[in-house]
Amino acid sequence: MLTLLKLLKDGHFHSGQALGAQLGISRSAVWKQLQRLEADSNLSIHKVRGRGYQLAFPLDLLDEAGFSNSCYPVHLHEIVDSTNAEAFRQINKGHSAPYVIVAEQQNAGRGRRGRNWESPFAQNVYYSLVLRVDGGLRQLEALSLVVGLAVLNTLKDFGLQAVGLKWPNDVLVGDKKIAGILLELVGDPADVCHVVIGIGINVNMRTATGVGQPWTSMSLETGMRVERNEVINALNKRLKNYLNAHAVTGFSSFHAEWEKNHVWQGRDVSLMAGLHQVDGVVVGVDQQGALRLCVNGELRTYSGGELSLRLRDDS
Ligand code: BTN
């Protein structure tokens, strides 16, 4: 299917005969593949009698060759359920880390707190970095917050200046989400484990129906199409630098940088844990990356994957 897409990606018309000749298949087999392509990837393909087939919009596809100089090996998939799920399958098969899994599309992209992550074909970055951690808990200390800083700086590399972080690891432009991070772990965190660092970045997405919160994309913010291969290479570099430093110093050397970029530092917030709500003022984060809230004059810390933060209306 990818071969057919590569032939069509220029957005020009291609006759069924020419496509068939290039793929070594019949015109009716081309037609069948195109139907499958439309259904699986949600792409719109124009069919005009006498002219052939044309993608409604030109596409830039990820290119494995473009990752050959990357600091992590990158494995490119066309369509997967979730790059994090694929990472777990590779870990179970014994594939030795570190490595990165990226995909053109996810059919069951996972967000935090059981949410779905909108993952249309060839528009965004769906990325999972697999690391083996055998240094004990220190190596996991506030790891997802450090990953947030790496993503934030990757976005800045592409000219987005007004990016910020929202505890624990949303990446925002103003109040709109542009990237999300989902860390999942397998093994014994106190001994040897694998951590899957899942990152979704909205790159060229300009419309979406299934996103349940305000969102934006790199393209919407910069007014330009952005090369996703370049985003992945830049993300690899930023992550490598941040993770190397984190392995040596833990979170301590990132604490100030993280709080400086926290968009809700000092704001009145409500912390939600299911139906339970705590109102307070954000003081910052502690050494483990837990949120420090001032609640009725008392300092409290909160951590855990199921928590979420909202601005209070009067903030
Ligand atoms: C969030 O809810 O903010 C976290 C979203 C994480 C999405 C990324 S996309 C790549 C990786 N694979 C997944 O299924 N999820 C993460």
Shape, please?
globular
CATH architecture of the largest domain: 2-Layer Sandwich
Average pLDDT, to the nearest integer?
92
**What is the CATH H-level superfamily of the largest domain?**
Bira Bifunctional Protein, Domain 2
Strand content: 25-35%
Report the sheet with the most strands, covering strand number, pairing sense and barrel closure.
7 strands, mixed
The ligands found in this model are: biotin
Number of domains: 3
Quick one: CATH class of the largest domain? Alpha Beta
Strand line-up in the sheet with most strands: 3-4-5-9-8-7-6
- What is the radius of gyration computed over CA atoms, rounded to a whole number of angstroms? 21 Å
Structural class: alpha+beta
Poorly predicted runs are none
How far is the N terminus from the C terminus?
51 Å
Domain BPL/LPL catalytic: 73-247
Binding site for biotin: 82-84, 106, 110-112, 177
Organism: Pseudomonas lundensis
Family: Belongs to the biotin--protein ligase family.
